[in-house]
Design goal:
The structure holds 2 protein chains of 2 kinds. By secondary structure, chain A is mainly α. Chain A has one domain. Chain A contains 12 helices and 2 strands, in the order H-H-H-E-E-H-H-H-H-H-H-H-H-H. Chain A has a two-stranded antiparallel ribbon with strand order 1-2. Chain A is globular, with a radius of gyration of 21 Å. Chain B is α+β, with helices and mostly antiparallel strands. Chain B has a domain of about 110 residues: 2-Layer Sandwich (Alpha-Beta Plaits). Chain B has 6 helices and 5 strands. A 3-stranded antiparallel beta sheet of chain B has the order 2-3-5. Chain B has a two-stranded antiparallel ribbon with strand order 1-4. The termini of chain B are far apart. The mean pLDDT of chain B is about 85. Classes of the chains: A mainly alpha, B alpha+beta.
C-alpha cells in the first residue's frame, strides 16, 4: 500500500503544469516561426506574410496544416528506425529543457502552494546541459540515417560545432556558478531577486556575451547555421525529410531558441524578477503572474535579438567557426573564469 | 607597374587593428543598419487589391476597334499581318452583305482575325501599320492559360465591346484611359 502514500495531488499538479508548459512552449514556437518571417520581412523593407487571417496571424496554422498534409517519404536506402528516431529525439530534447526552468515564484490555489517550476532539482543547470547535448543526437542520427552525403556532412558539422561550443558555454557558465554557489536555477534566480542584489549580467558581462554566442551556435542559428547551410549542403541534415518529420526538426530549432532564451534570462537577467520592484510587497499570486509575464518579456526580447542577428550577419565559414570556438571563445571563457575566481577570493579576504 | 587607368583602388594589405579584429563593433554597426530598416517605408504594392499604374506608352493586349456607331473598323487589308515581325496575325476577309451596314464600316471585313499571343512580341508595329485605326494595343495583358490553343485569340476575344451598349466592358478591355 505504499503507492497510496504518494502525494497524488502533487502528481496531478505537476502533470497539469507539464501539460501547460509543453503546450505553451509549442504554441510560442508556432508563433516564433511567424514572427521570424515578419521580423525578416520588416528588416528587409517588406510586409511579410499578411494574407492568412488578420495581419497574417493564422499563417503558422496554415504552415502546420501544410506540413501535416504533405506526403510522408522515407527513402529506400534510409535506415527506417533511425530515420524516425532523429526528429523525435530533436523534439524531445528540445522540450525536456523546460522541466527545470523556474517560470515564476509559487501561486496559492485551493490552499496549496504550487511552484511554477516542474522540478527544482539541485543540478538544474547541469541537467540543461545534458539535455541540450542530447539534441545533437537528433541532428546526427537524422543525418546518418538519411544515407545522403550532404546530410552526413551536415551531421558531422553539427556534431563538431556543438562539441566545440559547449565547451566555451560550460566554461562561461562556471563563472556564474562560482558567484551563486549553486547549480539550481531556482536558487540562482532567487539570489538575483533578493533586495539590493544586481542581476548577474552586471557581474558577468563578458560571460554573458560568450554564453550568448555559444547559445546561438547550439541552436544552429545563423551565423552558426552550418549544419543546414542551404547553399552548400542544400538543407543539410533534414534534406531527405518531408511532412511532419521535417516540421519537427524545424520546430525543435524554435523550441530550442525559446529554451535557451529562458535559460539566459534566468542565469543573467534575473529570470522572473521584475526590475526596480520589490516582489515581496505584492500579493504572492499577483507577483507570480507578473513574474511569468516578466520572464516571457525577457524571452521575447532574446528571440528578437536572435532573429535580428540572423538577418544581419552572414554565415561563418567552417574554419572560421572552429577558430572562433577554440582559439577565441575558450581562452576568453577561461580568462573570465579565472578573473571571477580571483575577485571572489579577494573579496573573501 | 603603371596603372592603366586612374580608377584603380589599391587593396589595403595592412593587418587589421585590434578593434577590427574583435569584430564586435562592426557587428553592432551592421545590426544598427538592419534595425534602421524597420522604420523605412515599404515599397510593396498589395497586388490584387492595388495595382501599379502602367506607363502611358505601355503596349499590352490588342483590341480591334469600333467606330462611333459601334461598327467594326477592320477591313481585313492584311497590312498588320505583313508588318508583324513575329508573324502572329492571320485573317480571312469577307464581303459585307446588304443589311450588315450597321455591323461593318466598309464593304470588306475580317471574317476571321487571329493573333497568337505566344508568338506576339507586343512591338506595336500592327498598330502603326493599320490605315483604318482598327487595331490598338490596350493597357491590359494576356492572362495565363492551360493550353497553347488558349493563347490564339480570335475575333470574339479581340473585338472591343461596343462603347454605347456596354461601357463597362469597353473600359475594362481598353485598360487605362487611352485609345
Amino acid at each position: 500500500m505504499t503507492l497510496l502514500a504518494l502525494d497524488w495531488i502533487l502528481m496531478l499538479e505537476k502533470l497539469i503544469l507539464i501539460a501547460i508548459i509543453v503546450f505553451a512552449s509549442l504554441g510560442i514556437a508556432l508563433y516564433t516561426t511567424f514572427s521570424e518571417r515578419k521580423v525578416a520581412a520588416v528588416l528587409q523593407d517588406r510586409p511579410g506574410p499578411n494574407r492568412a487571417g488578420p495581419m497574417g496571424l493564422l499563417q503558422p496554422l496554415a504552415d502546420g496544416l501544410k506540413l501535416i498534409m504533405k506526403e510522408e517519404i522515407i527513402p529506400n536506402s534510409a535506415n527506417k528506425a533511425l530515420f524516425i528516431l532523429g526528429p523525435a529525439m530533436a523534439m524531445t530534447a528540445a522540450l525536456m529543457t523546460c522541466a527545470v526552468i523556474p517560470w515564476s515564484s509559487s501561486v496559492e490555489l485551493f490552499g496549496r502552494k504550487i511552484d511554477l517550476q516542474i522540478a527544482d532539482i539541485n543540478i538544474g543547470i547541469l541537467y540543461v546541459f545534458g539535455v541540450v547535448s542530447m539534441g545533437v543526437y537528433g541532428i546526427m542520427i537524422g543525418g546518418w540515417a538519411s544515407n545522403n552525403k550532404f546530410s552526413l556532412m551536415a551531421a558531422l558539422r553539427g556534431a563538431s560545432q556543438a562539441i566545440s561550443y559547449e565547451l566555451a558555454m560550460g566554461l562561461s557558465l562556471i563563472a556564474v556558478l562560482m558567484l551563486s554557489g549553486s547549480l539550481s536555477l531556482k536558487t540562482i534566480v532567487d539570489q538575483q531577486m533578493a533586495p539590493g542584489a544586481w542581476w548577474n549580467i552586471v557581474y558577468q558581462p563578458l560571460g554573458f556575451l560568450l554564453f550568448f554566442i555559444c547559445a546561438m551556435a547550439e541552436c544552429n542559428r545563423t551565423p552558426f547555421d552550418l549544419p543546414e547551410a542551404e547553399n552548400e549542403l542544400n538543407m543539410g541534415y533534414h534534406q531527405e525529410y518531408s511532412s511532419m518529420k521535417l516540421g519537427f526538426y524545424l520546430f525543435a530549432e524554435y523550441v530550442n531558441m525559446i529554451m535557451s532564451s529562458a535559460v539566459m534570462a534566468s542565469l543573467y537577467f534575473g529570470g522572473y524578477d521584475i526590475p526596480f520592484l520589490d516582489e515581496s510587497t505584492l500579493a504572492p499570486n499577483i507577483a507570480a503572474i507578473l513574474g511569468v509575464l516578466s520572464l516571457l518579456t525577457k524571452i521575447v526580447i532574446f528571440l528578437f535579438l536572435f532573429m535580428w542577428i540572423r538577418w544581419t550577419i552572414p554565415r561563418f565559414r567552417y574554419d572560421q567557426l572552429m577558430n572562433l570556438g577554440w582559439k577565441k571563445l575558450i581562452p576568453l571563457a577561461l580568462l573570465n573564469m579565472l578573473a571571477t575566481g580571483a575577485v571572489i577570493l579577494w573579496q573573501q579576504g | 607597374m603603371q596603372a592603366l587607368t586612374n580608377r584603380v583602388k589599391p587593396v589595403s594589405r595592412e593587418p587589421m587593428s585590434f578593434m577590427e579584429r574583435i569584430y564586435l563593433p562592426n557587428i553592432f554597426k551592421g545590426m544598427a543598419i538592419t534595425f534602421s530598416h524597420i522604420f523605412k517605408k515599404q515599397p510593396t504594392i498589395q497586388y490584387p487589391e492595388q495595382k501599379r499604374e502602367f506607363s502611358p506608352v505601355f503596349r499590352g493586349l490588342h483590341v480591334l476597334n469600333r467606330d462611333e456607331e459601334g461598327r467594326e473598323r477592320c477591313t481585313a487589308c492584311g497590312l498588320c499581318a505583313v508588318a508583324c515581325p513575329a508573324e502572329a496575325i492571320t485573317m480571312e476577309a469577307a464581303e459585307r452583305m446588304p443589311g450588315e451596314e450597321n455591323k461593318y464600316r466598309e464593304e470588306k471585313y475580317a471574317a476571321k482575325y487571329e493573333i497568337n499571343m505566344l508568338r506576339c512580341i507586343f512591338c506595336g508595329l500592327c498598330e502603326e501599320a493599320c490605315p483604318k485605326d482598327a487595331i490598338y494595343l490596350s493597357e491590359t495583358f494576356a492572362p495565363a492559360n492551360f493550353t497553347r490553343k488558349g493563347f490564339i485569340y480570335g475575333k470574339d476575344d479581340l473585338l472591343i465591346p461596343d462603347k454605347n451598349k456596354a461601357p463597362e466592358e469597353y473600359a475594362a478591355a481598353k485598360g487605362a484611359a487611352r485609345v
